[in-house]
Amino acid sequence: MAGLSGDGGRPVPAPAVRDHVDGHLEGWVEELAAWTAVPSVSAVPEHASDLDDSARFLTERLREAGFPEVDVWTTAGAPAVHARWPARDPDAPTLLVYGHHDVRAVVPEHWRITAPFSPLRRGDRLYGRGASDAKAQLLCHVWALRTHLAVTGRTAPDFTLLLVVDGEEEIGSPHLADLLGRHAGRLRPDAIVLSDTMLWSLDDAAVCTGVRGAVSAHLEIRGADHDVHSGLVAGAAPDPSAELCRVLGHLHDERGRVAVPHFYDDVRPPTAARRAELASVPFDTEDWLRRTGCRGVRGEAGWSVLERLWSRPAAEIAVLHGGEPGLPSRGVMPAVAAADIGLRLVPDQSADRAVDQLRQWVGEQVSPDFAWRLTSPPINADPYSTPAGHPVLAALDRAVSRTVGRPAVHIGNGGSAPAALLAQALHAPVVFYGTGLPEDRWHDADEKVELRALRQGVETLAYFYDDLPRALGRPPAHAAA
């Protein structure tokens, strides 16, 4: 094992790490609950002050944890938080941890266990919006650093730790590129850990090695200049809702493939080794249906469920509306129907190219009797995969394996994250570590985090921090003997 304990290069002792985690977990859960109570919803303008409160809460916690440098980075939108704990050796390597403190919007009446911003501890779970996605994931790094220092007796890590905590990840991080550019001189990491991902289960040593890219597009189809009395035109006028449904009905072919021409031209097929690796991940269809709440399995023929999720592109309808849902009928044919379309991309697809392909396909599908418009925000994410065999990935594998007691397997993440942007802007590889689970109900009502996942997360990261300097090729001077 390549971990360091400060006494000749031996691994940091696992019992000491676990004792420290167990002795502090209750207080950490209270800290997480207090942060979860802050409704830092980035998609709703009325929550702007709550995002400020969330940033202030985090800066206070980081200062209390001992970070010598903590500041808030303002943007034209929500604030980000930056922190730095320098190594004792100025030549030591630097690790940057990326996370986010904003959360998704809520529909309060859908929540049953507790109100979304009234966190509730029930047994070994904490319920509340943001508890799993992703406030817990960021705090696990803070708790792990404190554990690492306490167990080793150090006053500073043997690497410089940077935190960048985005306030707009849930709306596509529209100002992250500008932040990274403005502060590039202070951000020169040797590696990046993105903590906004999931585990496979609490009993498997699974390490995420890539995220899919994402494209969001809004399609409007118009059949008239204004809403028209249905008795006046029904049966003779173009119905935009029917046309929208017809078009979207052709989005996939009979084999479950996305029917957009040339969409698969740049798709990099998974290697035989990768397919074998995914096949080794424990998977049971009934268990997956139970954990996700899905009622069946669909998708591209010829590929397993895990391959569809992590190695193949996809298209989905996120929002579909026409008329005035929820209001009494006015007896009109609506002038406009609209849908939000999401595309999930894999290497070597490009978000910009996918938008162009989708737009051309829509133009070929919509009948001439209708006007249409497809818009896409300039904040789409490209896919990203951790370089195979990178020593930091190997260190993370060792840490996860040591915690769970099983060999590490490499999984993916079917969602998206700004990994490609971080890697490109900061010229450093990205690895992924998170504490979420498929059943944590991210973006849905009754989101929760498992306390066992937090315990495992802190333990894993404590081992990872111990191993990191050597993994980056610059072990501490005291370990050279």
Brief sketch in words of this structure:
The protein is of the alpha+beta class and 481 residues long. The protein contains 13 helices and 18 strands.
Unreliable segments (pLDDT under 50, ≥5 consecutive)? Answer: 1-8, 476-481
| CATH-defined topology of the largest domain | Aminopeptidase
The CATH level-2 architecture of the largest domain is identified as 3-Layer(aba) Sandwich
Query: Oligomer, anyone?
Result: single chain
What Rg, in angstroms, do the CA atoms define?
24 Å
Distance between the termini: 16 Å
State the share of residues found in helices, binned by percent.
25-40%
Strand order of the largest sheet: 1-2-6-3-7-17
The total count of helices amounts to 13
- The structure class reads alpha+beta
Overall pLDDT, averaged?
94
Instruction: Give me the CATH superfamily of the largest domain.
Output: Zn peptidases
Described by strand count, sense and barrel closure, the largest sheet is:
6 strands, mixed
The domain tally reads 2
Tags for this entry?
Aminopeptidase, Alpha-Beta Plaits, 2 domains, globular, four-stranded antiparallel sheet, about 20% strand, disordered N terminus, disordered C terminus, 18 strands, single chain, six-stranded mixed sheet, alpha+beta, about 475 residues
